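SAMPLE LOG
Freezer: B-3
Tube label: C17
Construct: single chain, 366 aa
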Amino acid sequence: MKVKSRSPHLTKIEGKSPIKGIQEVLYLSEKYQNREALEAEVDMWDATTAGRYSWCPRVAQYSHRMGLVQAEEALQMLTGVAIHAGCDTLFVSGNHDLATQVVVQTFGDRDPPAPSHPYAHLHTGFVENVFKNFLDWYPKHTTFKPLIVRLDELDLTDVLAAVLRVLPDERIILGESKLVMRFDVGEYRELIYSGKPDLPILMGQRLYIQDWKTSSGFLSAWYFEKHVVSNQLRGYLAMLTKLLGRQFEGAYIGGIYVGEHALETHTKAGKPSTITKFAPYGPLPFKSDHLEEALWNQYAWRQMAFVYQDLAKQHPDMYKRFGYPQNTGKSCQGCSFLDLCRAQPKVRRSIMLTKYVQRRRHFLDL
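STRUCTURE (predicted):
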């Protein structure tokens, strides 16, 4: 591979890609001599983190500052990661067997959860078969092509770091690449923003991004509605627009149901199942102003994160007893930290140790 000699700031990442012939490389701007220098200076900030601060400061503290994940939620997240990895492999390689293998390897060969577990159905065989059903479904419902460009087509001026997927002929596969970019938000305001777009695609001559959403809840118009005004999707589009200097029209979403009934073909009464297992949604049209608005949203919530940090320093006793303020109300519905907030403050530490796991997010390793 000649990628390494093209630039002193491109470094081959050790370890084999699940797709034969594809290599991951780390790009660093001239400002950073190595990854350690980047991570010492840059606090990775993405739409997921910003969304937690906008939802509830206490959720942001538990998830962003402390890295807590509910044990059950960790399994659900792993299912989504495995399906995403399989879809990426599928649309890049076109190899069904290889894509299925990636799903299994990513999820891991783990023992099924106990029957009382909220996600007891999420075991290796279940996730593998959901994906195999997707392989039967997608040919009749997808017409896009993954966008592939060459390294010299990328405008890396404002890219601080990136993990890029490279083919032997030095084409770049942007699907699942990780980007850390600099944006100007208003006058003299800088936002360092991280993102991992799922799959930039071509629909005819028009550019979109294709996002995959796994859900344990039923797929419906109500489910997709929450993504219609999406900081995440608009942030992805802002990054790719700047990186490629090309206009994107918006986004598509592919919903994949991974609930306990995902493999059922008939009801208990013997009738054919009417549950929607896979569902395309879109397009979601976004204009340039929408993208700027999303960056402003991210910038504003980044500033609020600093506010809460300063508040904790100004009131150390209250912070030690309670933590960041709680939003409450509708924010508590479905929250994975509800048990913590309901508990008496002095026993919350013990609940953290028994019901949650610590999972620090290292963006370039995601």
